Amino acid sequence: MSISLSSLILLPIWISMAQIQQGGPDEKEKTTALKDLLSRIDLDELMKKDEPPLDFPDTLEGFEYAFNEKGQLRHIKTGEPFVFNYREDLHRWNQKRYEALGEIITKYVYELLEKDCNLKKISIPVDATESEPKSFIFMSEDALTNPQKLMVLIHGSGVVRAGQWARRLIINEDLDSGTQIPFIKRAMDEGYGVIVLNPNENYIEVEKPKIHVQSSSDSSDEPAEKRERKDKVSKETKKRRDFYEKYRNPQREKEMMQLYIRTWGRAETQTEGEAGSMPGARRGTRSRDSRIALWAKGRR
């Protein structure tokens, strides 16, 4: 039976509380103080000290998994299905490992859409500049020219991306169960144009820039000696806080921010009053026909 570091840290406090509860009024005050201390301890953060680094492979081979001829994910050496509880009593670490594998699966499905289904990856918006966030969808060659039949596939909400129905089914069952690939192949065999949308890929994540707050004392009318004293206290406080944060959360993940993909036009945007009462004109959005025309133009 293993004892975690967090249990060892809290054990003396629990023992002290048990001993104090047998005493008088003074001891009850100490009990209250200890309870207050316990309430301030973030057990989730404390348990992070027990877990291994959140460092995971970025390929299926690195995870020692591969898809077999039936489209099932199996361990390369043992032939066993994916095991979620790779390390016991480390649910957060296991979940992060599962999510890392899921990201690899997503890229693998993208490759299958292009290689096995012969779909083209189309960047959107088609008139995006180099610096602005972009997303993408997948289309068959005849998606915009097929005069009779078009199938548009849209996945559900959550972590799934283009070409997927459910990540859980891909990992635990097989590719046919969890991806849109069987539907795409059948549709193309029956003469449909195909568009695979990617609505959950509507933003990109970038690391949040660190904001350096300038000390207000620079513009203060306080005496120089008082400003220096305040600055010294501020620096010491920050040093203690940084030390505590490093101890409390040694595996602190990067703070990320989301940059959303543009969903309205730029050069061809209609201004307010230009289109009268046309729906969307006040929001500066293109009409459906103009968006499709620009899309088709971008594919030529």
Automatic annotation (TrEMBL):
GO terms of molecular function: siRNA binding
Identification of the protein by name: Cotranscriptional regulator ARB2A isoform X14
Domain Arb2: 56-233
Source organism of the structure: Vulpes vulpes (Red fox)
Domain of life the protein comes from: Eukaryota
Region forming the signal peptide: 1-18
Family annotation (PANTHER family): COTRANSCRIPTIONAL REGULATOR FAM172A (PTHR21357:SF3), FAM172 FAMILY PROTEIN HOMOLOG CG10038 (PTHR21357)
UniProt keyword annotations, A-Z: Signal
Compositional bias (Basic and acidic residues): 223-236
Taxonomic placement: Eukaryota, Metazoa, Chordata, Craniata, Vertebrata
Region (Disordered): 208-250, 266-300
Cellular component GO terms held in the UniProt record: nucleus
GO biological process terms, semicolon-separated: regulatory ncRNA-mediated heterochromatin formation
